[in-house]
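Please produce the structure of this protein holding pyridoxal-5'-phosphate.
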Amino acid sequence: MSFEGDGTRVVHAGLPEPVPGQPFLPGPVFAAPYHLDPVEGPGTNGYGRPDNPTRRALEGAIGELEGGAVLAFASGQAAITALLLSTLRSGDTVALPSDGYFTVRAFAEGTQRDLGVKTVQVPTAGPYPSFEGVRLVLLETPANPGLDVCDIRTVAAAAHAAGALVAVDNTTSTPLGQRPLELGADLVVASGTKALTGHSDVLLGYLATNDEELLAKVTVWRAQTGAVPGAFDAWLAHRSLATLDLRLARQSENAVVLAEFLAGRDDVREVRFPGLAGDPSYEIAQAQMRRIPGIISFDLGSAERVARFLAASELVFAATSFGGLHTTADRRAQWGDDTAPGFVRLSCGIEDAPDLVRDLTAALDAA
Ligand SMILES: Cc1ncc(COP(=O)(O)O)c(C=O)c1O
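Below is the modeled complex.
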């Protein structure tokens, strides 16, 4: 039988068949070398860099959710740079979001430029240029931190018509929010550090694809460059995945309440949340996404006011990253994002909405 509910799918994702006396989710396998068959040599598990059963179980789980074969990486950046470095060659051009995760642009404008790869930057909301001569189009939707959304199907069709590959950074959405491979993307890359694992205790990345040639290429890339997650992190991630549906549901519920609350205050400007009717991303997000992640952005006018807000709040942790259990807020300009000094990305946690509203009210009043 196949079960469609998100809660059911994440709870059972990647688990082995039940065996009496064995755990539901086997514990982490810590091994660098494994015993080899003295005659046959390497089998399924020869050495820990290419082979680890705990990592394979996690990859199976994420693969069920994304709808493709998955390779796990030590971080989102390790997955994204694996994609860029294994598909692009000197003379190629890559199209990247101008408003996406800034470290990807920094890598493209540094290491990749030095290797002879050209970059064109495109805003997520468009307009999209002709993709003639472009080898790879990387989309990030919703884009972090501005939360613009693009129509994956339409952009992928245009990119494919020009002969380009299409990859989507699915970090913010998670595979429960959208499945880019079904929308026409050739590859998915993501940071599992955020909502996918959601407990602010693991760095993880992954790449997913149904293209066997690309999969083989990146598998060799990962085995040779070695950016693999350790067994304990892979196991923690798999364990955390089981609650993804519940965590996302509460985060999104809280985000609806907080976005409406923030939009109703006259001392908070530019509130963005793709789940808020009237938001520039609302229509496409409703049409394309299965659920809206619990991330909101807004502008408090100055760095000083953000500092006063964060100091006054009892529940909102000042922290970067997003998608975790705890509500956090990050003034993005302090990291080098091209955002206004008072621009804040708020990641809604799984606390109770009335408590968050009370805390935010007091903190904004004090700020
Ligand atoms: C959209 C997006 N992609 C990729 C990354 C990189 O992930 P990691 O920090 O796991 O390397 C981030 C990190 O913030 C991100 O927000």
